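README: folding subset

This subset contains proteins for which both the sequence and a predicted structure token string are available. Records are stored as plain text. Below is the entry for Polyketide antibiotic transporter (536 residues), shown exactly as it appears on disk.
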Amino acid sequence: MNVLAGTRRLARLAFRRERTIAPWWLLAVVGLGLAMVSYIDRNMPTPSVLATYAETINDNAFFRALGGGDSVIADRGFMTAWRSGGFLYLLTAIAALLAVVRYTRADEDMGRTELLRSGLVSRFAALTSALLVAATVSLVAGALTAVAQIGVGLAPVGSVAYGAAITAAGLVFGSIAAVAAQIGRNARTARAITLFALAIAYLLRYAGDASGQAWMTYISPMGWIHAVQPYRYDRWWMLAVIAGIVAVLLAIAYLLSNRRDLGEGLLPERRGRATAPHLRGPAGLSWRLHRGLFTKWAIGTGVFAIGAAGVGTIVPDIDALPPDSFGLLQQGFGGDGSAGDYVNFFLWAGILLFAHVISIYPVLMIARLRAEERSGRAELAAGTPMTRVRWAAGQLYVTALGTAALFALTGLVLGFCYGLFTAELPGPLGRVIVAALSCVPAAWLIAAVGFLAYALTPRYAVPISWAVWAWTAVLGKIAGPLYNVWGGTPLEPFHYLPNTLAGEPFSPSTILTTVVLAAVLVCAGLTALRHRDFGR
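--- output ---
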């Protein structure tokens, strides 16, 4: 049999499945790139203003490292790529790595690959088709971004280099995912390995650029991609280096694929404990299933909170920035626009940014509810004295406590590290923790809407949950300025939270109303779950 027999058909099947997923990733990548161009044009309209921003950024290593490189220049194209590049590289990398795992180990876990392999399908067909999908998504993302950037007047050569760097990010982490898919025991382990590699790569790149230690940047895959420096150096040779590294990773992936058994990984299975008394209740079972996810989120949240506190050291330099756009942005977060309010503005903006990200955690938990039901494991649990309502309630209980713990961790780390870096401890610590905890009910409300969707329409629960989160993020105060909406909109729950850091009075009624609404939705969801068919 040909070593690639069946690849064409599997690729067609994978592309057909991807048609409902990839467009959203492409929309996010291209849309964010264009939104950043618009943001730069509005807030840095003249060369002198652009030069002021560049000078302020270059004076702060923590802030400069966000976009990569040892310095920034006052150029419209470069500033656009510097501000948005890190996000676009991350989005493309995540889209590619998820696609590779989806069409390799996830299909193996579901039994699809074994069924297909009973026909004229070679050992390498699934891996090859998955890589073709990931490469195509990455290539289209880069090409569309380049065309869009040229269309708004940016330099063609720099735009093509920018698009090529975006494509390279997808190819690198798609290749890493191909290796992880051979190593991991299942799809979840493969995703965790690749996402951990992505996080380490970003942190190494950030630490190298912030500290001036170039070796840290150049051992990081994200460092290789940022080193292209579109609109400035346009290092095409760096793309050739990345292509060589991708080729090596793919060779390793195919070699490992030829040496492992179908459905098994190279990492050995861990032996479980002989007894597990803590699994007797629904909450204990839920915590056992989700503690790994929570641990990863806690580590990631803590690390990025430290980084955010470091970036906050730029606050004393804000006086040099143009007052018009910044004052408008500041007032949108509840500030009064005065110079003395800069620190409070930054801390509250940082908390809201973390709030939108942490709100993904309960969305993932709702997705796991659906996955447990589809796999049949929830039905097995419901066959015991643990009813389906108790099972779901245990999951929600762990979700609620986990979400609150992530917010508390954010407030603790952000407040402590910012106070430490600015020698103001314990000044902001208590205020930041309280402000972070005030966001918990809004995140609970997002989870409650997702749970109600799961109880009523389980088939569409996951897309509905993600749509609710995306609605909240896009209409909020963080994303609003990208499309000239300052202060967010009243159509998302975080909009009603007072900025107590800036002196706004605490409103118990707002918190209580949000909690009550979330409780009502959860109760309605539990009632609906009790009466619908389980497992459909």
